[in-house]
Specification:
By secondary structure, the chain is of the alpha+beta class. The chain contains four helices and nine strands; from the N terminus they run ββββββαβββααα. The strands form two sheets. Strands 1, 2, 3, 4, 7, 8 and 9 form a seven-stranded mixed β-sheet that branches. It has a two-stranded antiparallel ribbon with strand order 5-6.
């Protein structure tokens, strides 16, 4: 599919009416908060904005990866914007991580591992402060002071 992208969150987008999850990466959830020093900030919204920046003004092309299962009914895809791999771009900016495990984890670790290490060393995106990995956040882990789902703080 090719067209103008509508950004859903930091690792999901819609192209030509089809929603895709970017293969090989996991970004903070929209409601997720991270910290820099003592200050909490909306890192999920910033990850979404980073993907918007990578796709602004260019055609996006997504190739569904049939060999990988869909997550929550949303197919995984390799997507490019102006020829630039969006999964790699999100890892480069520090707003997405390579998730552990899964059938293709080694493939993505090989492809994006050095990019993620560079983002970490240069303290880009999430790496500027403290964060909970998105997969742990979805399981209920939170930073100290971050509100829980019921509005209470941890």
């Amino acid at each position: 599919m090719r067209g103008v992208a509508q950004i859903v969150d930091g690792d999901s987008l819609a192209v030509a009416g089809q929603t895709y999850d970017l293969a090989g990466v996991d970004a903070p959830e929209l409601a997720q908060r991270c910290s820099r020093g003592e200050r909490l900030y909306d890192c999920g919204l910033l990850a979404q904005a980073a993907l918007m920046d990578l796709t602004a003004g260019v055609q996006v092309e997504c190739r569904r990866l049939a060999q990988l299962p869909a997550s929550g009914g949303v197919p995984l895809a390799r997507c490019t914007a102006g020829g630039y791999d969006l999964s790699e771009g999100m890892v480069y900016t520090g707003w997405a991580l390579i998730p552990p495990g899964g059938d293709a984890a080694d493939q993505y670790q090989a492809a994006f591992g050095p990019v993620q290490q560079g983002a970490r060393e240069r303290r880009r995106g999430l790496w500027k402060g403290a964060f909970v990995e998105p997969w742990a956040w979805r399981r209920g882990q939170r930073l100290a002071g971050e509100p829980l789902a019921d509005g209470a703080s941890r």
